[in-house]
Structure to design on (202 residues):
């Protein structure tokens, strides 16, 4: 049985583990997170993000298969911003987890800071599916509640990705690339900035 619903607080660790697996060989995280204990570092970064940003201020959804979480998506509404002090309190821990890539991570983040729409919008902060369940439609299903919210409210949706395969996937959901370049003057991963206009409700 497959079911999509909001993430519950007791499931944060399980959801973070899914994202850790999903991003184990992702170009962006390879560039921004220390390769030593790579998956464990990503998993903890995702756990902190879900616990301190996602549940309190965002819109996290999961898709379960036979009651096991297999896909996770985290949206944020631009009208509900995370207080800066929340980020500040975790900055040192994030840098510690990024390890020898912390400086590269900060520089990469600075490159695309401020690109999102100025009008109200939904931002997809993270989305991942357990590798063995990829290609089965779970990702689109997990994203559906956020896209439905955007359409109902007449909001743009936006995201960043570093994978051409992801660009193709998101394009099927109505997203378009609005900018593309390679981070660190070409030394780093590709970065695609994508937006989706609100769609008419059926």
């Amino acid at each position: 049985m497959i079911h999509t619903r909001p993430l519950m607080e007791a499931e944060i660790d399980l959801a973070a583990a899914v994202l850790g697996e999903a991003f184990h060989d992702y170009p962006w995280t390879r560039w921004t997170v220390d390769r030593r204990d790579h998956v464990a570092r990503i998993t903890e970064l995702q756990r902190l993000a879900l616990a301190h940003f996602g549940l309190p201020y965002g819109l996290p959804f999961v898709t379960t298969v036979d009651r096991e979480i297999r896909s996770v998506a985290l949206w944020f509404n631009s009208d509900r911003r995370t207080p800066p002090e929340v980020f500040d309190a975790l900055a040192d821990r994030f840098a510690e987890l990024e390890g020898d890539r912390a400086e590269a991570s900060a520089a990469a983040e600075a490159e695309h800071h401020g690109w999102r729409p100025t009008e109200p919008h939904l931002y997809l902060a993270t989305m991942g599916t357990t590798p063995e369940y990829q290609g089965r439609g779970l990702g689109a299903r997990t994203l559906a509640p956020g896209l439905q919210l955007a359409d109902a409210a007449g909001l743009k949706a936006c995201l960043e990705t570093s994978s051409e395969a992801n660009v193709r996937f998101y394009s099927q959901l109505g997203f378009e690339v609005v900018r593309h370049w390679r981070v660190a003057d070409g030394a780093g991963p590709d970065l695609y900035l994508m937006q989706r206009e609100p769609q008419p409700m059926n």
Observations:
- The two ends are 26 Å apart (CA to CA).
- Residues 38-57 form the longest helix (20 residues).
